[in-house]
Amino acid sequence: MVDDAPLNKILLEVVIYPKRLTVDDFDWILDVYEAVCPKSRIKLFKIAELPFWSSVADPVLTQAARSADRSNYRFFEAARKRIREGRGLEAQLWDGCEIDDDRGTFSLNIEAMKRRSLGLAWYVRFLFPLDFPVEQLTRLLRTLADRIDIYSGHGGPVFAFARDKKDEAFTEIYAKARRFWGVDIDMLDLIPFRMRSELKSPCWINLLGTSFMDDAGVAARIQDLRADADIAIFEQRFGTVFMLAAEPDSLDRNRLARKVLAYQQMAKVMDGFVLSGVGPLAGDGFISNAESTDEWLHRFSIDSKWLTLPTVQ
């Protein structure tokens, strides 16, 4: 906290890592977001061509947008043009609610990072207030996995943070993450290219695309999950969704619930694919402890070095 203003808070997210997106996919995702976000909360947009947030109601239009023959989300025409041309892009919608707003925030971020030798790495992130109906998170991830060819995805609680005070925010997040194991940490600036062959550590809901599900080791280890009545598994067109409990849990280490066992089982399924060698993340704790980012990513593994878990029966 700086000057009594919070630097981070827990929100809800759904993230996918598509193999590719077409213009039709892009427009479909916008429609999906419009279906789950109240219209009154779709206020601002941002694209790579504009270095500021512009009003949806009175948008600053690029030349491509002014000449576009469409009415819905015309201000994103420059992003559509980038998709057609195979270029990197950024397209965001936001309600304008800052980190200290008690209402939480709604936002959508569609981004393609480009490197000459690696091509495009995509991610799509939906962010919601903490009181958003959690059953809609699972439904959303399943809907996305039926339309978009995806490497992987995940959803549940996440530490959101003040972007202009990232170092200070992550110093606090480090301390909170030591206690609350069930809350994800945003590292989308570091990992998109790696998500073609690696996975984020277990979250409340997890999506494994067909390239992971076709792995013989993964397929064998999933049998234990299928035998657990508390874990719901949904087969979708482009992958399998694993919901590790009926609702998300922060997994407070000081009040550890049996739910952590499902996360440990999911970590076994993901063994060999969970990200390693990432970071370090920002903030004093992660930077001063060089291995701590990897330790956090592998906190549910049998040989976890993040903190020793109390025994849960």
Structural account:
This protein has 313 residues and is α+β, with helices and mostly antiparallel strands. The protein has one domain. The protein contains 10 helices and 11 strands. The protein has helices at 23-36, 63-66, 77-85, 134-147, 166-179, 210-213, 216-226, 260-269, 284-288, 292-297; strands spanning 8-18, 44-47, 54-55, 89-94, 107-115, 119-128, 150-161, 184-185, 205-209, 232-236, 239-243. Strands 1, 2, 3, 4, 5, 6, 7, 8, 9, 10 and 11 form an 11-stranded mixed sheet that branches. Strand 2 and strand 3 (54-55) form a beta hairpin. The longest helix has 14 residues, at 23-36. The radius of gyration is 19 Å and the shape is globular. 39% of the residues are buried.
Rg calc: 19 Å
**Global structural class:** alpha+beta
The proportion of residues forming helix, as a percent range, comes to 25-40%
Assembly state:
single chain
Overall spatial form: globular
Notable traits:
11-stranded mixed sheet; 313 residues; 29% helix
Summarize the structure.
29% of the residues lie in helices and 23% in strands. Strands 1, 2, 3, 4, 5, 6, 7, 8, 9, 10 and 11 form an eleven-stranded mixed sheet that branches.
